[in-house]
Amino acid sequence: MNDASAVSMLMRAVMPDGQIPARAGQGPAAQSAIRAGGIDIALPGQGGLASVFPVTDLAVASIGAAAHALAQLMADRFGAAPAVEVDRRLASFWFAATLRPDGWELPAARDIITGDYATRDGWIRLHANVPTHREAALRVLGADADPESVARAVSGRDAVELEEAVVHAGGAAAAMRTQSEWAAHPQGRAVGMEPVFDRRDASPDDAPSGFSGTPERPLAGLRVLDLTRVLAGPVSTRFLAAYGAQVLRIDPPFWSEPGVVPEVTLGKRCARLDLRIAEQRQQLRRLMSRADVLVHGYRPDVLDRLDLGAEARQALRPGLVDVCLDAYGWTGPWSGRRGFDSLVQMSSGIAHAGMLHAGGDRPVPLPVQALDHATGYLIAAAAIRGLAARLREGRGSLTRLSLARTAALLATPLPAQVQPALAPRTGDDYSAEPEVTPWGPAHRLKPPCRIQGAPMRWDYPAGPLGASAPCWTS
Q1: Is 373's pLDDT higher than 90?
Q2: Contact at 8 Å (CB) between 218 and 380?
């Protein structure tokens, strides 16, 4: 099976109306292609990230889905369908780190407590990057804040029992399960029944639907309100910003994620609001009332408690394209559970399958945070499709995605294939012009996709959280 066939099988699962043909067109090994809905998608490059799962194919398919959605929107608005290209090597690299600092270093992205620990009967992963999650895990374990103390405390506990105790205490943890155990688990069964995109149309309400995009900047004039953190949501809004959207990210006053901020704030303005304060909640409502797209990653009941449930959001801004994500899916007993990419890999059997493939005795995760990144590009695709539907029908929509459903997509059985290793990164993979950030100059990877006539570029360099005022610029 060639690379294009593998990508086409994954893309069919994330495209509307099964638009990808069952057999993809073939060219030379270095230039495969597929055709979807009248749009040609070239797939230059060879090789893949080393994994038991088709991680590079998922990268190409998810970025391709977002680019295809934008190309279709451009065809609808401007009368011609642009060709699309997704580069396998660059798509793989964009699922990892995209910035190469020049004379400075990125801070550590992980807390020292975050990691995999051997329990009495298996393995558990503790996620401690968020201070409250760290404190909850240490409180449950009665351990000091160092990995050795945590490892000793974990070693005397059962994995599932400890997982439940940490989660109940307000932390984030996941016991390692096999794929068959996850398939039999009530949450695994629930996720397996969910669609990749759970979309619901809002009632038509003569909603204002237009924005000022041009063939070169197709999302110019679009207002995108970003209420997400690490990592899928920010990836989605980074993609939208690349094509001209005005993205405003809102964080609480206490939030900090220095290790990933230079990756995820590219092209955005970043502000802070404290939603515990009535006037600042009102400011959020004012921002939302003028937004075209809302992307949020709160657990299901958080916005409801702020009187900003799904119906209230549509009433506040008729025609809102509302896209939300969570970790473990929107149905089932874990639908409100805190989670992150690495935890979902443990729960869903991905880390266990990696361990078996490697012949090792400890969890082996994916080589990149593929669930986060792929879900991010699928969120971008959902937002753009929602915009296209609003232009046609004058109504808003709500689309829900989850990391766990993306994990199920990645774990879909595909015919066996052997891919060569990706050629290593070189200086030629980075833009020649430096990105002037507040931390120092850096070079960004060249874009992973090309849409004919609409170059992927950003109006702002990456910048710190909270550096802008919480307002729209136009």
Answers
A1: yes
A2: no
Q: What is the pLDDT of residue 354?
A: 96
192 vs 125: CA distance, rounded Å: 23
Q: Report how far residue 238's alpha carbon sits from residue 242's, in angstroms, rounded to the nearest whole number.
A: 6
- pLDDT at residue 89 greater than cutoff 90: yes
User: What is the torsional sign of CA 200, 283, 473, 374?
Assistant: negative
Provide the 8-state DSSP code for 427. Answer: G
pLDDT of 286 higher than 80: yes
Residue 302 has pLDDT above 90, yes or no: no
DSSP H stretches of helix in 215-329: 232-242, 261-264, 278-289, 302-305, 310-316
CA atoms within 13 A on the CB side of 75: 16
Which tokens belong to 23? 């057999």
Closest CA to 217 of 461, 472, 466, 456: 456
End-to-end CA distance of the chain: 49
Task: Write down the pTM of the prediction.
Answer: 0.96
CB within 8 A of 61, min separation 6: which ones?
7, 10, 11, 14, 374
pLDDT at 336: 87
Whose CA is closest to 117, among 366, 346, 338?
346
Strands 449-451, 84-86: parallel, antiparallel or unpaired by DSSP?
antiparallel
Helix (H) or strand (E) holding 72: helix 55-78
Backbone angles phi, psi at 326, to 5 degrees: -140, 180
Phi then psi for residue 336, to 5 deg, are: -105, 10
Q: Confirm if 76 and 388 have CB atoms less than 8 A apart.
A: yes
Task: Give the C-alpha separation, 94 to 446, whole Å.
Answer: 9
Nearest one of 345, 354, 406 to 59, comparing CA atoms: 406
Among 71-85, 402-416, 451-465, the range scoring the smallest mean pLDDT is 402-416
Residue 325's DSSP bridge partners are: 401
More confident residue, 4 or 395: 395
Structure tokens at 142: 């009665």
Q: Could you give the count of Cα atoms lying within 13 Å of 340 in the half-sphere of its Cβ?
A: 20
The 8-class DSSP code of residue 48 comes to B
Confirm if 26 and 2 have CB atoms less than 8 A apart. yes
Q: Which two tokens stand for residue 453?
A: 């006539």
Name the phi and psi angles at 204, rounded to 5: -65, 140
List, edge to edge, every strand of the sheet that includes 99-101.
Answer: 99-101, 440-444, 435-437
Residue with tokens 């009941």: 301
The residues facing 397 across adjacent strands are 201, 321
Smallest Cα–Cα separation from 231: which of 121, 398, 109, 71?
Answer: 109
